[in-house]
Amino acid sequence: MSSPQQRLSSIAGQLAGSSATTNRQKLLAKNADDVVITLAVRTPLTKAKKGGLKDTNLDSLLVSLLTHYQTVREKSKLDPNLVEDVCVGNCLCPGQAYVARSAVLAAGYPVTAAASVANRFCSSGLLAIQNIANQIIAGSIDVGIAVGAESMSTNADGGAPEMSPEVSEHPIASQNKQPMGQTSENVAGQFSITRQMMDEFAARSYQKAEHAQKSGWFNDEIVPVKTQIKDPKTGEVKNIIVDRDDGIRYGTTAESLGKIRAAFPQWKPSQTTGGNASQITDGAAAVLLMKRSRAQELGQPIVGKFCGATVTGLEPRIMGIGPSYAIPKILSKFGLTTNEIDIFEINEAFASMGAYCVQKLELDEAKVNPRGGAIAFGHPLGATGARQVVTALSELRRQNKRVAVTSMCVGTGMGMAGIFVSEH
């Protein structure tokens, strides 16, 4: 016969387990006011300056994604007159607000459809989703589209501008003058992430992406893009259809990556290379959002649910470890543990931050980026936050699982994370 203390301990354990189960069940419950996703698609991700989208400006990329050839309008079969707002996550394009609104109109949406731009560096796509979702929750709109898009071929990142002495002489604010490559080296040095750890992390990303591409796992994520490409030698312009990611290097191993020289020898420990950092990339992704009740009224297929997102800050010099703060923060808001999450999509800005975050959070590596990540197929800055959601929902369907967390580090020292549920 157990003692009173043992019985109390047993009851406490049962309650703890019940509470955890209840929190996940609450997340999976279907309510009329849920903000749901009825379509989540992306373009192929192609190498900047080299790939199939290298001559496609942001406005053309947006128009293509929003209207042409099996994309948002045709694939969703939604009356475009119902779309009230389109929020475009973008980091680099000059005149972003002009481009976003103009592209929405050129894509055939009515003059009543508004447009805005969200820019929080690498989390811009997720911020766009959060912005549209928050408007729906507040009752400001019924139907909206969140987009993440970047043409890194046609728009360069000039880095931090010149700022006032109040900023440039401030011990923390001045860290924002450090280039992203330097922050990767800061993470590697401060947290003892070795070159071997980085190359092994990167190799797994390539290997997973290669397996996913060969197995056709990306097929239901990607909508082809009709565009034009210019031959750099002859100047001849050709009409093409881009329908696959082109940055995945087949046969990549940690050993082969170990032969690549340091990209930033000026910053110690000089372990970041062109092989263990994210690729410079062009691409876009779109997510169609509305309340569950509205989706049911319109006969829209519900593929997922937006549960929530959060952001946090940290020292800019180690901005890469942002997910190690943002993920626990979002989980705490829903009373969940990492064990209750089926998939983690963590943006691989650099292998230093990826290896650190997986280690720090003690994540099951099988759950992290099952299809590979930005090291393998690219990081179009403004697009990534939305692209991760598209990938996560597709992978949840494939595995017949339910809950995903997406997260990324954010330039200037931030991290963002969101929770999504598959309903397919």
Automatic annotation (TrEMBL):
Feature: compositional bias, Polar residues:
173-183
Map out region (Disordered) in residue numbers.
Answer: 154-183
InterPro entries referenced in this protein's UniProt entry, alphabetically: Thiolase, Thiolase-like, Thiolase-like_sf_Thiolase, Thiolase_AS, Thiolase_C, Thiolase_CS, Thiolase_N
Q: Which UniProt keywords apply?
A: Acyltransferase, Transferase
Q: Which domain of life is it from?
A: Eukaryota
Cite the Thiolase C-terminal domain residue spans from the record. Answer: 303-420
UniProt-annotated catalytic positions: C122, H379, C409
One family name in Pfam for this protein: Thiolase_N
A Gene Ontology MF term for this entry? Answer: acetyl-CoA C-acyltransferase activity
One GO biological process this protein is involved in is:
fatty acid beta-oxidation
Assigned EC number: 2.3.1.16
Q: What CDD domains does the record tag this protein with?
A: thiolase
Query: What NCBIfam families does the record tag this protein with?
Result: AcCoA-C-Actrans
UniProt similarity note: Belongs to the thiolase-like superfamily. Thiolase family.
What is the protein's name according to its record?
acetyl-CoA C-acyltransferase
Q: Which organism is it from?
A: Aspergillus ochraceoroseus IBT 24754
Taxonomic classification, please?
A: Eukaryota, Fungi, Dikarya, Ascomycota, Pezizomycotina
